Amino acid sequence: MTATHHAAILPQKGGPLSVELRDTPEPGPNEVLIEVKAVAVNIVDCYQRDISMPPVLIYPAVLGSDAAGIVVKVGSKVTTAPAPGSRVLAFASSFSQNGSPDHGAFQKFVLVQAEAVIALPDALSFEEGAVFPMGVLTALTAWATVGVPLDTKYTPEDKQAVLIWGGASSVGSFAVQSAKSLGFTVYVTASPHHHELLKRLGADAVFDYKDENVVSQIVAAVKRDGVNLHTAHAVVFGALQPTLDVLKETKGDAVAKVAHSPPLPADHPTLDNTEITFNFLPLEPAARTKNLYHPNIQVESGGLHGLNEALDKLKAGVSGTKIVVPI
User: Fold this and answer.
1) What is the pLDDT of residue 78?
2) How far is CA 238 from CA 81, 165, 264, 308, in A?
């Protein structure tokens, strides 16, 4: 008799999610089957549920990507992933697997490519671990998107700066930390009550994105500091136009490069001599969690049945906080 498990199913475009039974799959040769203990929700989950953006390729669908849990089985060719019984975090995305609902995080048992699974440190709970996969992946992949290798080590003499628009999000906080480790002078936007934290994480200057003079303030700081600013990461929706407004004044003759983490509309704003690229995620987690600042988490109850409400709360707006749902 085939084993089954509960999953939050998206039956059609526009949702809502409904909890139903699915057959529990067996892992393929390079896959790991994980019993999910907690998931984190991301704004992309809201957009996939509500408007199929990025495109939902198969209905009924299982959404989600950020999961923490316990390894149940591993495939026949898996040699590097943690063994059965291990606590792990995983980037479990059906989108990265051509829409396969077996691979979406919002269910009790999920298949994950072995290279997208890493051990969860003992010091972190499942709820704490679930916040890392997409946030860290997005922050790090952005550097590849703009042509900056992760082993880059700029010195103050290089005078290289970066603008991160949306620093208080989980992606933004990881982006700030990684930018500092790469040697950039780091300019960040966020609400004022996050400024001190972001400075502790590595920001050289933080600006209130709601200030009507924020663009001129950033430009003035760049000119005062004597650095070259032609690289940016637009972390949140609405960031692209003000980011381009800054780069127009700071990039000089250089080709400016912008990594754009939200889905990039076809009619997005542009700037001459500027490359704007959607930050498409790979499979590999590609980072350790031990030395990263951990965002605040907001734990929501209800398990799989509570995911619709968790997504609605996220869509309504949270600041400096990651919503996590124990499963």
Assistant:
1) 94
2) 38, 9, 11, 24
